[in-house]
Amino acid sequence: MGEEQSGQIQSVGFTLYMEMLEQAVEALKSGKEPSLEDLLREQTEVEFRLPALLPDDYIPDINTRLSMYKQIASVTEESELSELKVELIDRFGKLPDAALNLLEITQFKLEAAKLSIKKIEAHQKGGYIDFHLNANIDPTCLVRLLQSQPRQFSMDGPTKLKFTLPLEERLQRLRFVQDMLKYFQENLLPQV
């Protein structure tokens, strides 16, 4: 890749860049003009501040590693992600922690996208969940959450649920977000 592309990848992240590139190519193939707003509208971003990558000592060949990243970025179903995990283990051996993080974050992205979540960020002292305006979450579940634990949860604008609690360990962060996603899945508005 040229200097310009690698700079763009660094600014948005490899996975998001690959998804945007794939959507742009599809739009061009169908005769449409791709717009940045359309490419970003549907994306879900998940940031746990953990190393999430395929280490070069796990997959030494750069072309194979890039191919695996592309496959991970293009996953749309949980079953595809499970198959990809099996393939990685079969081809390259036991997954290192950074690769496990990458696959778990991809899993969270799939779940969050179904809930119309724009971004999840979780770090050592808390984080936030930012919903799209059209999220199908029952607002009363947010009110219950805010009332039950006012020191831990607050709203920052109409779509951003902030949480403040210690999440220093990797598993703590992952479990907390997993529990939050489950809570929101259980509190979807009924489809009309």
From TrEMBL:
Gene3D superfamilies: Transcription-repair-coupling factor, D7 domain
Pfam families found in the cross-reference section: TRCF
Keyword Hydrolase: yes
GO annotation terms (biological process): DNA repair
EC number: 3.6.4.-
Keywords: Hydrolase
Residue ranges annotated for the Transcription-repair-coupling factor C-terminal domain, each copy included: 47-147
Source species, domain of life: Bacteria
GO molecular function, one term: hydrolase activity
Official protein name in the record: Transcription-repair-coupling factor
Protein source organism: Vibrio quintilis
Gene name of the encoded protein: mfd
